[in-house]
From TrEMBL, chains A, B:
This is Glutathione S-transferase. It comes from the Bacteria. Residues 85-218 form the GST C-terminal domain. It comes from Novosphingobium arvoryzae. Pfam families: GST_N_3.
Length: 223, 223
């Protein structure tokens, strides 16, 4: 059985979990706080980041969320998530990078720092200016999702793809941490509501990260 | 003809240029300073980053260096760079992520900020503490390359791969900006020396970024 080293609010682990569930690949959750820098974890992944996916029986260790997703896309035929022509696949990967890098850097990373790390590790109060800036940038990203959904059924085209999983993973963490104001983003909200009711998404929405509580709408599939 | 929007010290554009050259795909260089945030460029790529690769005749725009590399890996058979079993390919992509994200974040990005942006844009002096920290972290990355090359001919295995191109691209920018001390890194230096003499690498080594001059060893294939 695959063992996924992760913590509940890691957006990249969430992306991998969504992909594994959609493809029907069973896995166990192993908790890892990468900020603790455990030697055993750093030996598995010198980059010091989650997720890491390991199958001890077969001696395989997979590192980096995009490398993990490409691995299962290549080895499991069910529910293709990087599909279509080379140009379609490039569009999917462009959007994965946009959410993994820009949305994460603009929104998820500062929210995680202010609302999770400062609470659990540094015992500090969040900086309201940083939170406001992250929420402002979140609006820009939601507007871009509105724009995409105006033109396409799913973010990268006619079918659900890894772009949708990457976006939903980042958004779910930002939403958990109270970083999203959905007012005026009807298209993005409708797209995300479809996601929240998928079987692959339900386990994520029911998990909690220690003392940090999400807003009431977070796990409500009708909100 | 493909048009590559880039600036001379963009490590991600360098990775794409190395891949295109190794695969024999002709392209033109178009200069883009992403920090200027030109509307025309942001329309091409809302992420606001280089490289962007466009073929106006065919109406194709490719964005994000990893998406671009995967596109040419899928469409051009010559010189495969993400090759082997699914596990081999996962190892190549793990290392690409390590250099694109960790090496870039630890070394290339702070060096670019202190030595390029502060000089060309902000007209400030570099912060020597930031430079020292980046150079310290560069040593850790070079030790990891030493370790890999102790066990393998190329970074990800028996043949040259996108992992080598990603690493060489980051290293070449850090080296240009004086961020690397090669003392004690014989394996990494020997691996990089092989790269410097490849036809795909020569054009990069001969380019200069405005007033910023590299150290004398930078373009010397015997240094």
């Amino acid at each position: 059985m695959w063992q996924l080293y992760q913590f509940p609010l890691c957006p990249f682990s969430r992306k991998v979990r969504l992909l594994l569930s959609e493809k029907g690949v069973p896995y166990e959750l192993w908790r890892e706080n990468p900020w603790e820098g455990r030697d055993e974890f750093l030996n598995r992944n010198p980059a010091g980041r989650t997720p890491v996916l390991q199958d001890p029986a077969r001696g395989i260790t997979l590192v980096d969320s995009r490398a993990i997703c490409e691995y299962f896309e290549e080895t499991v035929d069910r529910s293709p998530m990087i599909n279509g022509t080379a140009a379609n696949r490039a569009e999917i990967r462009r959007l994965v990078a946009l959410f993994d890098e820009n949305f994460f850097g603009d929104v998820t990373a500062p929210m995680l720092h202010e609302r999770m790390k400062k609470r659990l590790i540094y015992r500090q109060s969040p900086d309201s200016r940083v939170l406001r800036e992250a929420m402002k940038l979140a609006h820009e990203h939601l507007y871009y999702i509105d724009h995409l959904i105006d033109h396409r059924p799913w973010l990268a085209g006619p079918t659900m793809s890894l772009a949708d999983l990457a976006a939903a993973a980042q958004i779910s963490v930002a939403d958990y941490l109270g970083g999203l104001d959905w007012t005026g983003h009807d298209q993005a909200r409708d797209w995300y509501a479809v996601f929240k009711s998928r079987p692959s998404f339900r386990p994520l929405l029911s998990e909690r990260m220690e003392v940090i509580q999400p807003p009431s709408h977070y796990a409500d599939v009708n909100a």
